[in-house]
Amino acid sequence: MRQSQNWLKDIAPSHELREWFALDTKKWGEFKQKYFKELDHQKELVNMIVKKAKGEKVTLLYGAKDEHFNNAVSLKEYAEAKRKEILI
Q1: Which of 14, 32, 53, 85 is the least crowded, having the fewest Cβ atoms under 10 Å away?
Q2: What is the largest CA-CA distance in the chain?
Q3: What integer pLDDT is reported at residue 9 of this predicted model?
Q4: Which residues contact 42 (CB under 8 A, 6 or more apart)?
């Protein structure tokens, strides 16, 4: 089975947001809120991920050392919430 690959660099948090967060876990809640606002402006890309996840495995990559506090974790949470909204 052939896997499709997409690099959606525009769905990553902005450079300014990444610098502000600086992997400070105390800022995690606020980081997610700010990142979700950025994702609200990336509806087409988010919808692409949500649709793809319905039919196949989606792998989200991140460059942070912390596997619990990174943009991929946030993006997964956001996409899952959008998926539920679409299903309702």
Answers
A1: 85
A2: 42
A3: 86
A4: 10, 11
